Amino acid sequence: MADGNGTLAEKGFTGKFLNVNLTTGEISVERPDESLYRRYLGGYGIGARMLWDRVPVGVDPLGPGNMLGMFAGLLTGTPLFGQRWQVVCKSPLTGGWGDANCGGDFGGMMKLAGWDGFMFFGKAEKPVYLVIEDDKFELRDATDQWGQLAIDNEMMLKQRHGKKASVANIGPAGETLSLISGVCNDHGRLAARSGVGAVMGSKNLKSVVVVTDRKVIAQTPETIKMLRANLDDFVKPLKDFFHTFGTTGITAGSALNGDSPVKNWGGVGIVDFPNAKDIDGGSTINPKMEKSYGCWRCPMACGAESVESTNEKYPYPRHTHRPEYEAMGAFGTMNLMADPDALIYLNHLCNQYGFDVISAGGAVSMAIECYETGILTKEDTDGLELRWGGADAIVEMVHQMGQRRGIGAVFADGVKVAGEKLGRGSEAHAMHIGGQELPMHDPKLQPEYHTTYKLDPTPGRHTQYEGNKRIGTVPAAPADRNVYSGRGEHHKGASEYMHVVNSGGMCQFVMMAANTSNIPEWFNAVTGWDMNLDEIMEVGERISNLRMAYEVREGGNPRKRAVPTRVSGHTTEATHAGPLQGVVLDTETLEKEFLAACDWDTETCKPSAAKLNALGLKEVAEALHA
């Protein structure tokens, strides 16, 4: 194995990246200047800088010229709330900027092994995998792994490389270049969005294995003391709720209060899905769980792992992850399906095949509506009856999508591609923005979600906005959700705050419970810097502008993305009775005020030259405004 010849600095960053040319097999160590971290933190902040600099304009997302980057956050691998890592690339799903966020253990182990990130270029001649053992690294043959389900492959690699090995890999969906496939780790945690799994598959890269015996980074007496004090400061009711129920605890309520979309965004919970209580996290899902689960050293541990299924139709194994809210919504409320065993099994299948659970559930919803309206017939589906609430058919549909056979092959790349393939009016049932299926939160209940879903460089992303817990002087949003003016500055600040959280490697749920005014102390404690809130928020703004600049450079214009009328309320369908009856979003006000606050062109979304220059992005300004 080649040697990185590096010592692990006692800081929140290791100061080392791996560059892997899969075409030639050459691997090199890169040691950036410390200023890179202070300007971009880590995660997709650094990923944005690397993608802008190293991927040619107009590159084919599934060609060898694209980069697949895996980056740990600044705090990932430290005691101070760092669990998460991100994957970045040019997205084959949307054609522009792509990133996906993930928990599990891979990010922490990457940092402990001495690396802040891995960047993959080119394409291997045959399937390969990368093995990292602290400072040593080597590409190995993965021909025997190709075709393996993701969790099965992870377990096999742990047997081969030891129980301490952490694995990031793709399942069959990524291997067959499904545009809704993700990168998997920790037996079912996925960096799911933007089609990042397809990019990994296009490079013939099956997996990355990290093995290390090193201890937690920056675990000094001072940081441990700070950690204990900050844990005492957590909002205990919120922490206890997430630890007990996880995100499934909000499923039933969200289905009935208008938050969770129902029946492919065409229904209403209190009308179409009154039995949502049957998928309540506490009464129906938790009894099937055996123990709590947390991502790497997480103080909240909002996950859980199951007992072995006794249902022969839905045979999920012991220690299957409890479905998260998005999975419960995508397969439950969206499809009027209230069988707890089927929901747990469907979540497991998506993790095994390597599907983005939001997109996979949305694809099934579109297929069912097309069947119910006669666009698809029994002849089209080879006899498979796709009906609302039909658990057995939904399970079979996911198998067909994962194996690219039958009607599943039509939907294996998501709803936009399915609509293009089917035609016949099916496009009206494709609930996506910019090619990406929508999350399980209705913007008619939280208006900022509309602007986020449409205008973020990665469309359809609920995790790019957080209105509950922020740092700095971000103004509050109007309390009345039917007031649309006056949200631009709030949304700008809240979005930039999320770039700090994500690039810092921090979990959104942990940040809801923690005192986030301590973020400067956390960053400074593990870096030796003297950052204040103003500088930290400027980093968030810099990352925001660079992501959008990349999207615009690649020909994207989020303002021109179409939003389904069911989502915005601009519809004549009788689909919005109940809590959201009569709500019609003032989309023009929301979009223009947000873009103006960001100093982005209100018609093209291009960041202004003045803004880019003020953020120290002179070369980006020159490229965009040449």
Description:
The model has no long low-confidence stretch (mean pLDDT 95). The chain folds into three domains: 2-211, 4-Layer Sandwich (Aldehyde Ferredoxin Oxidoreductase,  A, domain 1), CATH 3.60.9.10; 236-430, Aldehyde Ferredoxin Oxidoreductase Protein, subunit A, domain 2; 448-624, Aldehyde Ferredoxin Oxidoreductase Protein, subunit A, domain 3 (Orthogonal Bundle), CATH 1.10.599. The longest helix is centred in the last third of the chain and has 21 residues, at 533-553. It is an alpha+beta fold. The strands form four sheets. Strands 1-9-8-13-10-11-12 form a seven-stranded mixed β-sheet, sandwiched between helices. A six-stranded mixed β-sheet has the order 3-2-7-4-5-6, sandwiched between helices. A two-stranded antiparallel sheet has the order 14-15. Strand 5 and strand 6 (97-102) form a beta hairpin. The chain is built from 26 helices and 17 strands.
Helices and strands, with pairings:
Layout: E1 2-3, E2 17-21, E3 27-30, H1 35-40, H2 43-54, E4 68-72, E5 85-90, E6 97-102, H3 106-112, E7 117-121, E8 128-133, E9 136-141, H4 150-161, E10 166-169, H5 172-175, E11 183-185, E12 189-191, H6 196-202, E13 205-211, H7 221-232, H8 236-245, H9 251-257, H10 269-272, H11 281-285, E14 289-293, E15 303-306, H12 325-333, H13 340-353, H14 357-372, H15 391-403, H16 408-411, H17 415-422, E16 432-433, E17 436-437, H18 448-455, H19 488-503, H20 508-513, H21 519-527, H22 533-553, H23 565-568, H24 587-598, H25 609-614, H26 618-624
